[in-house]
Every structure is written in C-alpha cells, then in structure tokens.
C-alpha cells in the first residue's frame, strides 16, 4: 500500500480521495486484471464505472461535466492504478487527451466530447507515432488535405493506446507538408467515419490489457471544424502538453517501482533458504536498503515536480528529467525485485513477473530515455 504520511503535495482531502480510488480499484479492477490480460482489452463497462465514480478526467471544468480539480487528483489515480498493477488506458484519457480538448478545443468540441469522456461513454486516443516516425513528430507523413469545408485524411499510425476501444482519435497530421513543424495540425477523427479502419490489437511484451493498435486513414473526410485549435499550430500544442504527459508517466513509474519493492520485501521475508529467510541474507537486505534510499529520494523529487507543475513552472527539461529518472528507477527496482524472487520471479503466477514486463515500455513511450537525455542536455 502506498504510504502518504510523508508526502508534501497532498492534503487530507486528497488522502480521502485516494482511499476512495483504492477501494474502487480493489472492487472493480483487481478482480478483472487477469481476464483483461488474457483478452487484451479492458471492458468498456470499467470505463463507465470509472466515470460514475468520478475517476475520469477530474480536471475537466464543471461546465463540461467534470470536477474542475487540479493535477494532484490525476496523480493520485495514476499512482493507485500503477500500484495496482494495471495498464488500463484511463490515464491517457484523463492526463493527456482531455487537456488538449480543454485547452485548444472549440466550444462545440468541448460540449460534444468532454461530458462523454468524463462519464466514460466516449473513449479517446491520440495518434502520433507512425511506422516510420517515432519521437520525431515533425516527420509525420499522415496528411489532412483541405477540400472545400472538409479535410481528407490519409496515412497510418501505430502503437496507439486505446486504439481498439477509441470513439475519438486526435490525429497528428500534416496540413501543409512543405511547412515543417508549422505544417502540423491536430485533427479530430471520429471512429465511425468512412475510411477509418483499425488494424490488429498488437501483440506486446507487456501491458497486455492495454489495447494498442494500428490505425488506418483512407480518404477519411471530416469537416474543417474538426481541427483542434488553429491549423498549423499542432506541433506547438504538442510541445506545450508534453510536460504533463511525461510527468504522468513519471508518477506511474514511481508508484510501479514502489509496488515492485513491496513485493520483494514480502516475498523475501516469507521465503526460506538454508534455514533462514531470504531477507536474512546480507545481500538481500543491502539490495533492498539501496532501493529504499532511491525510492525515498524519488518520492521527494516527484512531489517537487507536481508542485512545480501546479504552479505552471515545470519546464519541458524538468519533466523530461522526471520521466527519465522515475522510469529508469522503475526498471531497476522491478529487475532487482524479480531477481530476489529467484525462479518464482519468472513465473506469471507472481505479480512481479507482470510488473517487470509492463515496466519495460515506460522507458520508450512518451519519449525514449535517450530522447529525454537529449532534451535535458540542451539546457546544460
């Protein structure tokens, strides 16, 4: 269980909210985890239950059906979801997509989609990555060509979280292929549009319950009113929103690391070897002590980042450093925790096996660790 008594960014209201989130996940999420892993997708009923419980898009203003809360509430949900061992895509909807629509959407777009996103009736995705383009978003090849009062969208995307479930996709596309970053726009594409097709639910190493898809756009026509914000400003919007996306991943990474550590402590204190518990060996205790020190520092750093973000001061470099540090820490802790489980750690019946698999992508999506180092290095 995540300890909150030493946290500096949470007050009693947040602790009460955390207790509600934890109880909801114990009731609605944990009993279904294994089934969702096997099926490769999370039930839409879970999304609606999250909506009813107020766990979707808590930052959406009240006039659009939300609670108008600050990012700390998102962070609590992110922490508890990660600690529970789930990769459900609700954080993408709450932490990323909702803010794009709140910050850049027209009044019509907000009123059409935000209430449905808050209730869980609508599931959303954001389509950035392409088969030949990962972190370099200026190089996307998907196009949205103007034809009268419509855009005609053509191209393909890959590794799209919520791709199978999504009712609405924010598509990163070139509205002017010759204008570089100034030719990138964000286009809303509804999943029932002619020419929009979903590919297979991709077979991944981990995070199996998070539906991740290829998406195809073949002469998909949408009204020009589906442009999110101003045409040609898409790249600027992406850069503006990336700090919160990367902070959200850092939050999940830290909580995932804590859960892996807790599993290792529990296992080593119960497992006997050579007449004593595995925990009694000096190597075990020293390994865990080193990890605990790093986790202690990690929680303090995370609270600093959240506080900076609430003040609107968290820079792109600081958010990138946070994602780098906390996801690398998650991998270090998960790998060490699995090792301390011995052969049992390689068995899927133990939670650490899933945590280890699921943690690997954290250092890739949202910007690889190598890209995070590049972003940080530019400020040195």
Give a structural overview.
There is one protein chain. With 380 residues, the protein is of the alpha+beta class. It has helices at 12-28, 33-39, 44-52, 71-83, 90-104, 107-119, 234-270, 282-310, 316-340, 351-359, 369-377; strands at 124-127, 143-147, 150-161, 168-174, 184-190, 196-201, 212-223, 272-273, 276-277. The radius of gyration is 21 Å and the shape is globular. The two termini are 38 Å apart.
Describe the secondary-structure layout.
Blueprint: H1 12-28, H2 33-39, H3 44-52, H4 71-83, H5 90-104, H6 107-119, E1 124-127, E2 143-147, E3 150-161, E4 168-174, E5 184-190, E6 196-201, E7 212-223, H7 234-270, E8 272-273, E9 276-277, H8 282-310, H9 316-340, H10 351-359, H11 369-377
Parallel strand pairs: 1-4
Antiparallel strand pairs: 2-3, 3-7, 4-5, 6-7, 8-9
Helix pairs in contact: 1-4, 4-7, 5-6, 5-7, 7-8, 7-9, 7-10, 8-9, 9-10, 9-11
Tag the structure with descriptive keywords.
380 residues, alpha+beta, three-stranded mixed sheet, 15% strand, globular
Brief description of this entry?
With 380 residues, the protein is an alpha+beta fold.
Largest sheet: 4 strands, antiparallel
Number of helices: 11
Give the integer mean of the pLDDT values: 96
- The helical percent reads 40-55%
Give the helices and strands as they follow along the chain: HHHHHHEEEEEEEHEEHHHH
Oligomeric category: single chain
What radius of gyration results from the CA coordinates?
21 Å
Low-confidence parts lasting 5 or more residues at pLDDT below 50? none
